[in-house]
Task: structure prediction
Amino acid sequence: MASPSELPELPLETRCLPFALRQYAGFWLPEAVLARGLPAVRDRFAPRLDDVLLASFPKSGTTWLKALAFATARRAVHPPSDHDHPLRHGNPHDLVPFLEFGFTLAYDADALAAGLEALPSPRLLATHLPFSLLPGRLAAAGRIVYVCRHPKDALVSAWTFTRKASGSMGVDAESYSLREAVELFCAGRCVAGPQWRHVVEYWEASLSRRNVLFLRYEEMLRDPVGSLRTMAGFMGCAFSPGEEERGVPQAIVELCSLEKQKNVEASRDDGRTADGIKADAYFRKGVAADWSSHMTPEMGKMVDEAVEDGLRGSGFTFADSTPANREK
Result:
């Protein structure tokens, strides 16, 4: 793992907003994560066997995954019908903390580690780190739920997020064009990129390890209740027959729907998450194939060709994301 003194020697990318990136172990990651977040996860975080780690490439359904996992794992204490449910007044990103970004932003890494250690089991945590950069004991311990999204939709979502959240991060991204974002994405030069390699690592892990569940965002949109049942069983908190009869899975899906989460007070007006970003930046359309509303056919072809080249020989294919299959 790179040490802070080695960072200046790593390849640098400054065009991909909002962070300056460095290439390490084949992936482009924010400088601050490499300098502080990743070493702290390795040295200060103690995984537990019942931890649930929610993993994803940025803007691949992370917010929805966090909401669903929290509502499912905590339903005994917070039934989805509870009028004071944390998801009715809080943002999923504040309820399920990111590991590497938490340590990156922490004023006192030891205090953050102590706070994580004090959390009751099973802990829900999140990461955008590639599987190969998870510390070995973290990859081997607990359960990992990974959500994969079609590259073009993940790209457009990341671009719109960057432009919307830029003010919160002190970055002027108004002139950051989609064309620039596409070119950088196709070169793998984006946060946690190349995206296709990030996905394939977790997909391959799910084939060889029993503690990794691989979900596709597009399939979750088509069958949210069925996907939730799969996730709950994997997390060790499957729904009982009685809960099924009472419609608990359906109630959780409704509670975690995009419209419900967008209208939570903490996600409106000037509400901000713990990392200082405006909460409404995390919510957009939540549909498949919206890339076609933003990209030109030429841009779409550029991404398709880059992804096809990157996946060659892997055996993995992304779900279809053409306008004809767009979720309404």
Observations:
- The chain has one domain: 27-325.
- DSSP finds 15 helices and seven strands in the chain.
